[in-house]
Amino acid sequence: MLRAFLDYHRATLELKCDGLSDDELRRQSMPPSTLSLLGLVRHMAEVERAWFRRVINAEDIPLVWSESGDFQVAYDARAATRSEAFAAWRREVEHSRRIERAAGSLDVTGHVAKSGEDVSLRLVMLHLIHEYARHNGHADLLREGIDGVVGA
Known about the structure:
The protein is 59% helix and 5% strand. By secondary structure, the protein is mainly α.
């Protein structure tokens, strides 16, 4: 069930971006916010990488767009393209799926260095569902502002 809900939200984010040009995907919501659909895709690539690869799989790798670990860098999509953002996001989603499927159970744990906590794969999947759901709400408003399209 967790896998199905997570994949639903992944597909929803992709659907919200479907049929838009790079310029439309980079369109920011309103000053001073830099929020854009392309920024959300880039951010979710970072989220997938951080939780599945860095936490659950204990891989010692930087974020996709920030060597210093600053998640905000991904939101700056002014020079980004659909192809690079979606390639990175899809790559991270595939890594996440591979890690999740290889896990012995949802009770497998990883360590969050920032908080010092150990977290289960179950909690990570729930967190990502929450993160996608929240950002898909943003994506819905962004998409409506671009061309009036609403709904999932």
